[in-house]
Amino acid sequence: WKTMKYGKRKVCMMGEKRPLPPPLSTMAQQLVEVGIFPNDQPPNHVLLNEYQPAQGILSHTDGPLYASRTATLSLGSDVVFEFS
After folding, report:
1. What is the pTM assigned to this prediction?
2. Dihedral angle, C-alpha 3, 16, 38, 47, nearest 10 °
């Protein structure tokens, strides 16, 4: 885990420089199989965020390494996303 400079989250990134671990690779392939991601643009990395209660993701835009779509899985609590 790496604590980001702005202190809002801990982050672990996988898939940028090496393949995704088997459980995540399987999940990524299933997202393709059910049509959420196209065959030619499967999920290319996983970003794990840990937030404390009342914390959240800062407003941002993603860089060029990110695909044009994302899949989100929240564990341990409810989550509401507001996109603008």
Report:
1. 0.67
2. -10
Residue with tokens 């937030």: 51
Residue 37 has pLDDT above 70, yes or no: yes
Q: Which long-range contacts (CB under 8 A, 24 or more apart) does 68-73 make?
A: 68/41, 69/36, 69/37, 71/31, 71/36, 71/37, 71/43
Alpha carbons 51 and 49: distance in angstroms, whole number: 6
Structure confidence at residue 29 as a pLDDT band (50, 70, 90): very high
Mapped to the 3 state alphabet, what secondary structure does the chain carry?
CEECCCCCCEEEEECCCCCCCHHHHHHHHHHHHCCCCCCCCCCCCEEEEECCCCCCCCCCCCCCCCCCCCCCCCCCCCCCCCCC
DSSP lists the bridge partners of residue 47 as: 13
